[in-house]
Amino acid sequence: MSGIRLDKVFKRFGTTEVIKGIDLEIEDGEFIVLVGPSGCGKSTLLNLVAGLETLSSGTIRIGDRVVNDIPPRDRDIAMVFQSYALYPTKTVRDNITFGMVTRRVPRAEQDAAVDEVSSLLHIDKLLERKPGQLSGGQRQRVAMGRALVRKPDVFLFDEPLSNLDAKLRIEMRTEIKKLHQRLGKTIVYVTHDQIEAMTLATRIAVMDNGHIRQFGDPETIYEHPVDLFVAGFMGSPP
Ligand code: ADP
Ligand code: MG
Protein backbone atom coordinates (compact mmCIF):
# COMPACT_ATOMS: atom_id res chain seq x y z
CA MET A 1 0.00 0.00 0.00
CA SER A 2 1.51 3.34 -1.01
CA GLY A 3 -0.35 6.53 -0.52
CA ILE A 4 1.73 9.68 -0.14
CA ARG A 5 1.44 12.27 2.57
CA LEU A 6 3.09 15.67 2.80
CA ASP A 7 3.02 17.66 6.04
CA LYS A 8 4.11 21.31 6.20
CA VAL A 9 6.59 20.88 3.37
CA PHE A 10 8.88 23.85 2.69
CA LYS A 11 11.70 24.18 0.17
CA ARG A 12 14.10 27.07 -0.16
CA PHE A 13 16.84 27.55 -2.72
CA GLY A 14 19.18 29.94 -0.92
CA THR A 15 16.88 32.69 0.30
CA THR A 16 14.14 32.01 -2.25
CA GLU A 17 11.22 30.07 -0.85
CA VAL A 18 9.79 27.93 -3.63
CA ILE A 19 7.48 25.53 -1.73
CA LYS A 20 5.65 27.40 1.02
CA GLY A 21 4.09 24.98 3.45
CA ILE A 22 2.29 22.25 1.52
CA ASP A 23 0.02 19.65 3.13
CA LEU A 24 -1.25 16.95 0.80
CA GLU A 25 -2.72 13.52 1.35
CA ILE A 26 -2.83 11.14 -1.61
CA GLU A 27 -4.60 7.79 -1.33
CA ASP A 28 -3.12 4.53 -2.57
CA GLY A 29 -3.95 4.05 -6.27
CA GLU A 30 -4.96 7.65 -6.97
CA PHE A 31 -4.01 9.56 -10.11
CA ILE A 32 -3.09 13.01 -8.84
CA VAL A 33 -2.36 15.76 -11.32
CA LEU A 34 -0.40 18.81 -10.18
CA VAL A 35 -1.21 21.78 -12.40
CA GLY A 36 -0.15 25.39 -12.29
CA PRO A 37 1.72 28.04 -14.25
CA SER A 38 5.38 27.71 -15.15
CA GLY A 39 7.66 28.41 -12.19
CA CYS A 40 5.02 27.77 -9.48
CA GLY A 41 6.99 24.86 -7.99
CA LYS A 42 5.49 21.73 -9.58
CA SER A 43 8.78 20.08 -10.52
CA THR A 44 10.33 21.01 -7.20
CA LEU A 45 7.47 19.38 -5.32
CA LEU A 46 7.76 16.22 -7.42
CA ASN A 47 11.52 16.15 -6.94
CA LEU A 48 11.03 16.37 -3.19
CA VAL A 49 8.76 13.31 -3.29
CA ALA A 50 11.31 11.52 -5.50
CA GLY A 51 14.17 12.47 -3.20
CA LEU A 52 16.03 14.35 -5.94
CA GLU A 53 15.84 17.47 -3.77
CA THR A 54 16.03 17.64 0.02
CA LEU A 55 13.36 19.33 2.13
CA SER A 56 14.03 22.55 3.99
CA SER A 57 11.45 21.43 6.54
CA GLY A 58 8.38 19.23 6.85
CA THR A 59 7.70 15.52 6.40
CA ILE A 60 7.04 13.30 3.40
CA ARG A 61 5.62 9.81 3.84
CA ILE A 62 5.33 7.16 1.12
CA GLY A 63 3.20 4.28 2.33
CA ASP A 64 3.84 4.11 6.05
CA ARG A 65 7.47 5.27 5.89
CA VAL A 66 8.84 8.74 6.48
CA VAL A 67 11.16 9.08 3.48
CA ASN A 68 12.89 12.40 4.32
CA ASP A 69 16.24 10.66 4.78
CA ILE A 70 15.73 7.77 2.36
CA PRO A 71 17.67 8.03 -0.94
CA PRO A 72 15.69 8.01 -4.23
CA ARG A 73 16.57 4.42 -5.17
CA ASP A 74 15.10 3.09 -1.91
CA ARG A 75 11.80 4.98 -2.12
CA ASP A 76 9.94 2.45 -4.29
CA ILE A 77 9.15 5.05 -6.93
CA ALA A 78 9.90 5.50 -10.61
CA MET A 79 10.05 8.83 -12.38
CA VAL A 80 9.41 9.77 -16.02
CA PHE A 81 10.72 13.13 -17.25
CA GLN A 82 9.81 15.42 -20.12
CA SER A 83 13.30 14.99 -21.56
CA TYR A 84 13.12 11.14 -21.60
CA ALA A 85 16.67 10.91 -20.19
CA LEU A 86 17.52 7.82 -22.27
CA TYR A 87 21.09 6.60 -22.82
CA PRO A 88 21.79 7.51 -26.47
CA THR A 89 24.37 4.77 -27.09
CA LYS A 90 22.30 1.91 -25.63
CA THR A 91 19.55 0.02 -27.40
CA VAL A 92 15.93 0.31 -26.33
CA ARG A 93 16.23 -3.07 -24.63
CA ASP A 94 19.34 -2.00 -22.70
CA ASN A 95 17.76 1.30 -21.75
CA ILE A 96 14.80 -0.56 -20.28
CA THR A 97 16.86 -3.13 -18.40
CA PHE A 98 19.64 -0.79 -17.25
CA GLY A 99 18.43 -0.65 -13.65
CA MET A 100 17.95 -4.44 -13.57
CA VAL A 101 21.49 -5.02 -14.82
CA THR A 102 22.94 -2.88 -12.04
CA ARG A 103 20.78 -4.79 -9.53
CA ARG A 104 22.05 -8.09 -11.03
CA VAL A 105 18.58 -9.37 -11.88
CA PRO A 106 18.95 -12.72 -13.75
CA ARG A 107 18.88 -12.48 -17.54
CA ALA A 108 15.73 -14.59 -17.96
CA GLU A 109 13.85 -12.32 -15.58
CA GLN A 110 15.08 -9.25 -17.48
CA ASP A 111 13.88 -10.73 -20.78
CA ALA A 112 10.47 -11.56 -19.33
CA ALA A 113 10.10 -8.05 -17.95
CA VAL A 114 11.08 -6.49 -21.29
CA ASP A 115 8.59 -8.72 -23.12
CA GLU A 116 5.83 -7.68 -20.78
CA VAL A 117 6.32 -3.91 -20.83
CA SER A 118 7.26 -3.68 -24.49
CA SER A 119 4.04 -5.31 -25.61
CA LEU A 120 2.07 -3.20 -23.14
CA LEU A 121 3.63 -0.04 -24.59
CA HIS A 122 3.74 -1.20 -28.23
CA ILE A 123 7.52 -0.96 -28.53
CA ASP A 124 8.22 -4.67 -28.99
CA LYS A 125 9.43 -4.11 -32.59
CA LEU A 126 11.89 -1.40 -31.53
CA LEU A 127 13.98 -3.20 -28.92
CA GLU A 128 17.24 -3.35 -30.90
CA ARG A 129 17.14 0.31 -32.02
CA LYS A 130 18.98 3.22 -30.43
CA PRO A 131 17.05 6.27 -29.12
CA GLY A 132 18.26 8.36 -32.09
CA GLN A 133 16.29 6.05 -34.41
CA LEU A 134 12.99 6.65 -32.60
CA SER A 135 10.28 9.30 -32.79
CA GLY A 136 9.51 11.47 -29.77
CA GLY A 137 6.48 9.39 -28.88
CA GLN A 138 8.46 6.16 -29.13
CA ARG A 139 11.20 7.58 -26.92
CA GLN A 140 8.66 8.55 -24.30
CA ARG A 141 7.25 5.00 -24.40
CA VAL A 142 10.75 3.64 -23.79
CA ALA A 143 11.16 6.01 -20.83
CA MET A 144 7.86 4.73 -19.47
CA GLY A 145 8.97 1.15 -20.06
CA ARG A 146 12.09 1.75 -18.04
CA ALA A 147 9.92 3.06 -15.19
CA LEU A 148 7.41 0.19 -15.45
CA VAL A 149 9.96 -2.65 -15.25
CA ARG A 150 10.93 -1.43 -11.81
CA LYS A 151 7.39 -2.29 -10.64
CA PRO A 152 7.28 0.51 -8.11
CA ASP A 153 4.20 1.34 -6.04
CA VAL A 154 4.40 4.99 -7.06
CA PHE A 155 4.99 6.65 -10.43
CA LEU A 156 6.00 10.29 -10.75
CA PHE A 157 5.60 11.97 -14.14
CA ASP A 158 6.98 15.44 -14.87
CA GLU A 159 5.32 16.84 -18.01
CA PRO A 160 5.99 13.60 -19.89
CA LEU A 161 4.03 14.63 -22.97
CA SER A 162 4.98 18.26 -23.46
CA ASN A 163 7.59 17.49 -26.14
CA LEU A 164 5.09 15.61 -28.28
CA ASP A 165 2.83 16.96 -31.02
CA ALA A 166 -0.88 17.36 -30.29
CA LYS A 167 -2.02 14.12 -31.91
CA LEU A 168 0.54 11.98 -30.10
CA ARG A 169 -0.17 13.78 -26.86
CA ILE A 170 -3.81 12.74 -26.98
CA GLU A 171 -2.89 9.18 -27.93
CA MET A 172 -0.36 8.88 -25.11
CA ARG A 173 -2.75 10.45 -22.65
CA THR A 174 -5.21 7.68 -23.36
CA GLU A 175 -2.46 5.06 -23.00
CA ILE A 176 -1.35 6.45 -19.64
CA LYS A 177 -4.91 6.42 -18.39
CA LYS A 178 -5.30 2.78 -19.47
CA LEU A 179 -2.02 1.89 -17.77
CA HIS A 180 -3.25 3.40 -14.53
CA GLN A 181 -6.56 1.54 -14.73
CA ARG A 182 -4.73 -1.67 -15.45
CA LEU A 183 -1.93 -1.40 -12.86
CA GLY A 184 -3.76 0.54 -10.14
CA LYS A 185 -0.56 2.26 -8.96
CA THR A 186 -0.36 5.65 -7.28
CA ILE A 187 0.55 8.32 -9.82
CA VAL A 188 1.57 11.95 -9.32
CA TYR A 189 1.60 13.66 -12.68
CA VAL A 190 2.75 17.22 -13.38
CA THR A 191 1.44 19.22 -16.31
CA HIS A 192 0.60 22.81 -17.19
CA ASP A 193 -2.14 21.52 -19.54
CA GLN A 194 -5.63 21.84 -18.03
CA ILE A 195 -7.24 19.40 -20.46
CA GLU A 196 -4.64 16.75 -19.62
CA ALA A 197 -5.39 17.34 -15.94
CA MET A 198 -9.15 17.08 -16.41
CA THR A 199 -8.96 13.83 -18.39
CA LEU A 200 -6.36 11.99 -16.30
CA ALA A 201 -6.85 12.94 -12.67
CA THR A 202 -8.84 11.32 -9.91
CA ARG A 203 -8.00 14.54 -8.07
CA ILE A 204 -6.30 17.73 -9.19
CA ALA A 205 -4.04 19.96 -7.09
CA VAL A 206 -3.89 23.48 -8.48
CA MET A 207 -0.61 25.16 -7.54
CA ASP A 208 0.34 28.80 -7.53
CA ASN A 209 3.54 30.37 -6.25
CA GLY A 210 4.54 27.54 -3.90
CA HIS A 211 1.05 26.92 -2.50
CA ILE A 212 -1.76 24.53 -3.35
CA ARG A 213 -4.77 26.73 -3.99
CA GLN A 214 -7.30 23.91 -4.35
CA PHE A 215 -7.29 20.11 -4.20
CA GLY A 216 -10.32 18.19 -5.37
CA ASP A 217 -11.90 16.07 -8.06
CA PRO A 218 -11.87 17.51 -11.61
CA GLU A 219 -15.58 18.40 -11.71
CA THR A 220 -15.43 20.30 -8.41
CA ILE A 221 -12.29 22.18 -9.41
CA TYR A 222 -13.79 23.15 -12.75
CA GLU A 223 -17.31 23.98 -11.58
CA HIS A 224 -16.59 25.30 -8.10
CA PRO A 225 -13.17 26.95 -8.19
CA VAL A 226 -12.31 28.46 -4.80
CA ASP A 227 -10.94 31.68 -6.22
CA LEU A 228 -10.35 33.68 -9.38
CA PHE A 229 -6.88 32.23 -9.85
CA VAL A 230 -8.20 28.65 -10.02
CA ALA A 231 -11.15 29.71 -12.16
CA GLY A 232 -8.89 31.58 -14.58
CA PHE A 233 -6.29 28.84 -14.76
CA MET A 234 -8.78 26.01 -15.26
CA GLY A 235 -10.91 28.03 -17.69
CA SER A 236 -14.02 27.57 -15.53
CA PRO A 237 -17.26 29.05 -16.83
CA PRO A 238 -18.05 32.45 -15.20
P1 ADP B 1 7.53 24.48 -12.37
O1 ADP B 1 7.93 23.04 -12.50
O2 ADP B 1 6.18 24.69 -11.78
O3 ADP B 1 7.67 25.23 -13.66
P2 ADP B 1 9.90 24.64 -10.70
O4 ADP B 1 9.61 23.77 -9.55
O5 ADP B 1 10.80 24.13 -11.75
O6 ADP B 1 8.54 25.19 -11.33
O7 ADP B 1 10.54 26.00 -10.17
C1 ADP B 1 9.95 26.77 -9.15
C2 ADP B 1 10.86 27.94 -8.83
O8 ADP B 1 12.04 27.48 -8.20
C3 ADP B 1 11.30 28.73 -10.03
O9 ADP B 1 11.31 30.10 -9.71
C4 ADP B 1 12.69 28.23 -10.28
O10 ADP B 1 13.48 29.20 -10.88
C5 ADP B 1 13.18 27.91 -8.89
N1 ADP B 1 14.17 26.82 -8.86
C6 ADP B 1 13.95 25.54 -9.25
N2 ADP B 1 15.05 24.78 -9.09
C7 ADP B 1 15.99 25.60 -8.56
C8 ADP B 1 17.35 25.44 -8.14
N3 ADP B 1 17.96 24.24 -8.23
N4 ADP B 1 17.99 26.53 -7.66
C9 ADP B 1 17.38 27.72 -7.55
N5 ADP B 1 16.10 27.94 -7.93
C10 ADP B 1 15.42 26.91 -8.42
MG1 MG C 1 8.53 21.94 -14.16
Automatic annotation (TrEMBL):
Full protein: residues contained: 1 to 238 of 366
GO biological-process terms attached to the record: carbohydrate transport
GO molecular function list: ABC-type transporter activity; ATP binding; ATP hydrolysis activity
Protein family membership: Belongs to the ABC transporter superfamily.
Localization (cell): Cell inner membrane
Nucleotide-binding listed as a keyword: yes
Record membrane topology: Peripheral membrane protein
Protein name: Sugar ABC transporter ATP-binding protein
An annotated GO cellular component: ATP-binding cassette (ABC) transporter complex, substrate-binding subunit-containing
